[in-house]
Amino acid sequence: MIITSRSFGEYRAMFALGDGDLRGVVLDCGGGASSFAAGAAGAGARVVAADPGYAHGPDVLAGLLRGDQERARAMVRANADRFVWDWYGTAERYGEVRSAAGVEFIADLRRRPGSYLAAALPCLPFADGSVDLVLCSHLLFTWADRFDLAWHRAAILEMSRVCRGEVRIFPIVHRGAGERVMFLDRLRVDLEAAGLSSEIRRVPYEFQRGADRLLAVGAHR
Hints:
Elements: H1 8-14, E1 25-29, H2 36-42, E2 46-50, H3 57-78, H4 91-111, E3 116-117, E4 131-137, H5 149-162, E5 163-170, H6 184-193, E6 196-202, E7 213-219
Helix pairs in contact: 2-4, 3-4, 5-6
């Protein structure tokens, strides 16, 4: 997997976040090198990010991130037709946004290490109902060729356990050509049986073609 550094603005669009969504405690699950927690703190919100990579510390992560950003930019340039450029405008601008987000992430990790916890799904070190909103970007569904239905079910149940509000997962297609995840319907049936509602929503962001929807999961009222 590639360590990615998405920005606060990208998160706002990917997860259709309004100001009200940022008033509670937000968990960025599988946060990677996102600058969402840093940007949210600057806006007065409280975000905790969880990712197993944080165990490496900022110095190692900074080196890994530089290499991964180069690979990501090369992949995007080589497959430009797989992407929608409305958000960034150009491949150059895409690289600038991601580089700036990575710099902001490393600086914030050094400044506020307590906001970044080394943890991995499907086992999170949080109490039941301890956060108001969980966001999960480009992990579930994106890597469905590596993580099967059972893992996805366990991961969503765990995120729902720690959340007293809603879990939002983006996107809901495979990486690459953006094919539909074949077990998505079965997964939603399993969640329903576990007492969780789910809804697919369109969001104001599309970069990977076909990746313009999220899955929102919440407990039945």
